[in-house]
Amino acid sequence: MTTTESAGPIRTTPFPTVNDLSGRRIGAEELEAVTRVINSGQLNSTVGGETRAWEQEFGAYCGVEHVVACSSGTSALHLAVAAVNPGPGDEIITTGLSDAGTVLPIVMQNAIPVFADVDQHTGILDPASVEAAITDRTRAIIVVHLFGVPAPVEELREIADRHGVILIEDCAQAYGTLTASGARAGTVGHLGCFSLQQSKHITAGDGGMVISKDEPELVRRARLFADKAWPRDTNERTHLFLSLNYRMTELQAAVARAQLPKLDGIVKDRRERAHRLTEAIADLPGLRAAPVDGSSYWQFPLFIDPELAGGDGHAYAKALAEQGVAAGPGYIQRPLYLNPVLSEAKTYGDSGFPLADVHDRYAEGLCPVTESLISGRLLVIGWNENYTEADVDDIAAALRLASKQVAG
């Protein structure tokens, strides 16, 4: 419902949201899938066939042979880190601009998160900063395709191979994202990790996958880690190393299978609506949308030059809220390294292990570009596949009014 500037808020009715059916494509297919599992009486993946079928189908979709399904996106990253098998005090380089699920698995495996800075135009790891952070203790790099924008994984893979470390792609927000070489996100690194959480392009409520094109031994270790290191392909009930139970349920797998045929259409519609908004606001001073090439638009990020835009992300979020458009400044409230779990080494009892000797490094100023984006240069607008052109036009109109209001 687009109105004139003098007629009140641009929007008085809710936008579609991924938090319910208004912004999701969930229906008869998922209901049939869940019913099929319930009727089988096989809800556990050790006895049913849904999870193995899901792994095969998702692998075929991604063009990879090796897939392990698990219980969440965070557990997928934990599986990947565990597959690398770092020793206590070994280092894994990653970003401070992500969900905590990117970093917590590092600490859970008693390794040390090392934070590299990000590109100011994308919020994604800067390869030069990554390479400068590599030491003789580095075992892996975790790069995030933030908001579905493709990360420079080809360059990072070259850096990883040159230094003999593993590249893990966090693709939780990047279904359908295409990299600079045209590859699918998750297939350039040694391992790729996906999430089926509520807000992702497709969802089973929760769930995760680890994929690899050419690292079967890493994937085997990930599969073992997801199942208490119990080698079920043998007749021996034994546990080969310290690990957990991160198995996907048959209900999750069945819903994911029903969602997969919808994925290309979901990404297509998200892209088309995002490109419409990108074009509509291209002339607004100090506001720049994310690169469109290869992006799959988990959310719609805007990068702000406060001097040209007249204000920062907080000012724009407030102005947009007055027009009925929800937007989040900074994406997260603080860099991951400033959360108490890291900055105060709140880990195992009062030991601080494995961060006791390093947590002082997690301080303001560690990654200046990351901090500038979170503090005001980044604004994130929610996105989903069910936006109409009218929805996008309302968001564009609200951004235009906000630009006028903030700039004065």
Automatic annotation (TrEMBL):
Organism in which the protein naturally occurs: Microlunatus parietis
Family stated for the protein in its record: Belongs to the DegT/DnrJ/EryC1 family.
Record-level Gene Ontology MF annotations: pyridoxal phosphate binding; transaminase activity
Cofactor (UniProt): pyridoxal 5'-phosphate
Keyword Cell wall biogenesis/degradation assigned: no
Positions where N6-(pyridoxal phosphate)lysine occurs in the chain: K200
Gene Ontology biological process terms in this record: polysaccharide biosynthetic process
This protein's UniProt keywords: Pyridoxal phosphate
Stated name of the protein: dTDP-4-amino-4,6-dideoxygalactose transaminase
Domain of life: Bacteria
Record Pfam families: DegT_DnrJ_EryC1
Annotated region (Disordered), positions in chain: 1-21
Active-site residue numbers: K200
